[in-house]
Specification:
Layout lengths: L1 H21 L19 H6 L5 H17 L10 H14 L5 H13 L1
Helix pairs in contact: 3-5, 4-5
Amino acid sequence: MRHSLSVSAAAAFLAFSAVAQSLPSPALAEDVTVWGQGNILCSDWNLKDRSDSENRQWVFGFLVGESAAFGQDLLKDSSADVLFKEIDRICALKISLTLAKAAQSVLRELRK
């Protein structure tokens, strides 16, 4: 009885593994509730001193959190300067985006 149970468990694990491997990688959480500085508009980001600590810290936390949620180190080959220059570029082009959406755009680029 014990032997047949472990064979069944192994078969179930193999079936689960095959299904899990066929699933697509997780998408960015586009429609999650964002609190705090992530709600400021790019137009505000563009007007403020970009070294504003509160905004920068929010971006750092968001990028690290999203990267961890994907189980990937999306930030390892980048630097803070590069990331903020990309957010600056995005916000200059689309002033009605929120800071969260601009940060998500950066993550989309990093995932390519």
